[in-house]
Amino acid sequence: MPANVPGRTGPSRRNLIAGFGGLAAAPAVGAAAGASAGAKAQEAGPMDLTLTINGRDHRLALDPRTVLLDALREHLNLTGTKKGCDQGQCGACTVHVDGVRVLSCLTLAAAVQGARITTIEGLAGADGALHPMQQAFVEHDGLQCGYCTPGQIMSAVACVHEGHAGSDDEIREQMSGNLCRCGAYPNIVAAVREARTRMERA
Q: Which domains are assigned to the chain?
């Protein structure tokens, strides 16, 4: 059958099939390219990093693809930062980098070398006294299972520092990136509101 029939407009069935075949092959090509990049990273070997976490320097040799979350949990045993969705959608892995909240599951460890990293373990005072936000979460029962709580607290502290805790509606909006499957949201808002007052007085 000829590729194009006289009098017919538009592509022929043969051309369409050929085009779709090329589209079907595209993901495989992309996957092959990604695998090639990963193989090259492995061949390069680990890279030496110094991460400043909670005021202390930690020297590590890590695969260049290691995200901050895995560096904290798997290499430094700082397991307070939780792995939830591992896709940057739940907020359980929230930490501070130079005072700004970031999702550690989406942040390469190599990208934060030289920055000041603070995890939930670094919030309490040197004498063990809880941070005002931690204390408020306890007092207002802003948790149930507690899995999301470290990320909630880290995000809440940044929320206050950013000046985004002026009202309950603003708190809800600014904390919307942190999911609580137990539904403790009303208590979390109350805790942030209470801690905001204490932090402003400090």
A: 46-120 (3.10.20.30), 123-202 (1.10.150.120)
